[in-house]
Amino acid sequence: xxxxxxxxLLCLPLFLASQYSKKEIDSLNLKIxxxxxxxxxxxxxxxxxxxxxxxxxxxxxxxxxxxxxxTGNILSNLSRVKESFExxxxxxxxxxxxxxxxxxAKINGEFGRNYVELGxxxxxxxxxxxxIDLSKNVAEPKIRKPLLQYLYSIRGVQYEETNQLDxxxxxxxxxxxxxxxxxxxxxxxxxxTVHRENLDSAKYYLKRGExxxxxxxxxxxxxxxxxxxxxxxxxxxxxxxxxxSNYEESLAISExxxxxxxxKDTHKLLFEAYKAVNDESNANKNLEQYSKINDSLSFExxxxxxxxxxxxxxxxxxQDQKKEKNYLxxxxxLFAIILLAVYLILKRISKSxxxxxxxxxxxxxxxxxxxxxxVNESFDEVIHLAKTNSPEFWARFQEVYPEFRGRLLAINPxxxxxxxxxxxxxxxxxxxxxIAEYTFKAIKTIKNNKYNLRKRLVIETKDDFVLWIRNQIDx
Length: 475
Description:
The chain is mainly α. Among the domains are: 218-309, Serine Threonine Protein Phosphatase 5, Tetratricopeptide repeat, CATH 1.25.40; 321-368, no CATH class; 376-475, Arc Repressor Mutant, subunit A (Orthogonal Bundle). The chain has 24 helices and no strands. Helix 6 runs antiparallel to helix 7 (121-135). The longest helix is centred in the last third of the chain and has 43 residues, at 306-348. It is globular, with a radius of gyration of 30 Å. Residues 3-18 have low confidence and may be disordered.
């Protein structure tokens, strides 16, 4: 017995030495924060991996998942997208049991960043939007506000990429109001310089960004963004010398941080600035660098295209499974309602009306078959076209439901094309929030459109919109 105790006592220090204390973990996390602030992403990544080397280092599962997400974020900043996806998948799997809104929001936010890197802009906007919705459920304001600020900022930039300038400004303004920082101020300055040519407003936000960065609270990366915005400002004022100076300073920071995408963008800006002063030599040098980095990024992204596609397919598979369950539940409910209706009808029919009773049963069976027919491949196809806001939706919908347009126009011949399409969405069972999401419109806009449509079709307030339209078409 004494021998066993002696062995345990001798091994205990070795066991404890392989793990970090809570104080040591806090110290490492602080060091990671400082390294990121300084722009030393490789150093921060090394420390994250050091912590993750032994999961026993984490007293709480949530801390482990946060570190997975942070590692994924750093790798994304380094354009190491495939590795970033791997760590985010670990966080996603770990959160299946925890179901923590903060963690899920951060995971979706980082998936969005990776989609941006690979050029899946619309998919990135979907991920950022999902992350924002989840973030609103985070209880602690000190976590919720900066998280929302971060997500609004990066989604706003993607709205700019897709030329949705009002949404771009709205997101950036929201982010800056929630938690002002140099990054959002710089992006707002770019908005007013490039898209509105309001240089007074641009100058205001540039000064704001500069003042905030001087506090020492923000990472050096934000300084590079600010300098690029200053460059655009001076370029617009035709002060090309100052524009080039700011671009070159921004380029030096991006080189130090090893951020290929920022380097590519800055070389393009420098090409334009040198071109404006007829410095063909430097213009061509920057154009060559731009092309070289762009080709390198494209090559790397092509090698890992299957990584995001696998994630998207898995996500779609999970969504399809949920849909299948919902369809099944819907069919069961419909079948139960039909059975109940048949039972009540049978109960009320007397023995002398058996022929009539059989006819009613037959009619209900026909209705059941019609309901089943609607849950077929054509119905699935129409649903998919509606959800993706496809231009082919309306034509395909009329093929599947040929009487739909004629019956509605018989009620009101003056119905607009847009009102017929809205009626089709309602007929398919989509609610206001769904229609707004799939057609990229505000919920309030859809509510107003439905209200006006109800009036034009003379539908009473007490009537359910979906049932009313289905009764008109299917009767």
